[in-house]
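Our consortium's second objective concerns turning raw sequence data into structural hypotheses that experimental partners can test. To show how far this objective has progressed, the report includes one record in full. It was chosen at random from the queue rather than selected for favorable results. The single chain below, 400 residues long, was entered without modification.
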Amino acid sequence: MKKSLMIFAIMAVSVCMMAACGNKNAKNEAAGESAVEAIDDNSPAMQLLNSVPFTEEGLKSMIKTPEKEPLTDEELEALFLAYSKVNINEKSQSLESNFVGKVKSEVLRGRKRSESEGAIMDKLLKNPSPQVRGVAIQQYGGLFGMSAETASKLVKALENEQNPFVLKEGIRTLGNELKRDDVKKFVLGQIGNDNKEVRKSVALSVGNYWSIGLDGVKDAALKLMNDGDEEVRKTMLGNVGQLADDSFVPELVKVLNDPSQGKLHGDAMRSLYTMWYDYPQHKNTSKAAYEATVNYLKTTPRTKDIPAWQAIGGLQNQNAKEYDAWKAKATYYNNSEYVKLMMDIAADPNANWLGRGPAVKVIAKIGTKADLEKVKSLVSANSDDKDQKNVLQIIEKELK
């Protein structure tokens, strides 16, 4: 009897412990976080990490190497293993706010680079913690691209990866390397991934200057422009202009002609501006994209949603070094037509005032003070304009 009571007592304690753990994980999941799993790792680096409190000061205290000298292999690896203790936000597939990156930057600043760093990063690509794998992959990125050997190594490390955080970071790191067949096959192969953050990363890689003219990119862009998730569509619609391909204009116009897709209009217009105005590079030219832009901005009656306020101020910025050369090539561009269009929007009380302000700034950039004065008189004369005060303040500021 006593033995039976003891067994039931143990079972009761076990159930309570499981319930407590379940409640804790439920709270993490409700907050959009992925609960950190304990990693079975008894390496010297993990022992070092676990020997100190998981706090900012704790991490700093485990570094014993004098300043400016390269860290020991255990110290460097332990700094990266610290990410295993950070939650992944399931919604954004990014690491939750943490102090690990700050400590790592402070500790490494001004030090000589460890000769073992490359080997340690290669090792961490296989770490059981997705947080560590994802951060390790980030270390291979750079402004000047990567070698074919490095790109292939990352593709191989990712070929059986299932964790969306790691996949997202891998695609971002490889984003400019679609010219390499193995990279392109891997990245485009994720278009059907169930996680929207992974697909958004694919969209950023596809809608990229470095992807211009590559086989398969156009089809991939079209699929992502019509993705079932609005955020994925926004990402692709807003970046497809980087491909400088007029064949995308009809697809963008289709979105702009549909009032029910108003939330996507600003993104579609951003791509059109990139295709024909291309600030700050001013390299691209496209008559089709320019005409689509003008036609959309001429849409009446204007409302607070159409034209999208984000779509109006595209010409308020200029790169003086490149602008004249661009204007000489952009023979389709009619400056007086564009100024008049901006004046119409700025004076229209039905247009969203958040867009009317940028219209005034465009006039100040490409028009004259006389144009601004004319808009001022039009706005001042309309006593029914509920946004009159806000718009006049912007005009006065640009007239100074």
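The partners drew two points from this record. The CA atoms of residues 178 and 184 lie 5 Å apart. The first strand starts at residue 33 and ends at 34. Both points have been shared with the crystallography group to help prioritize constructs.
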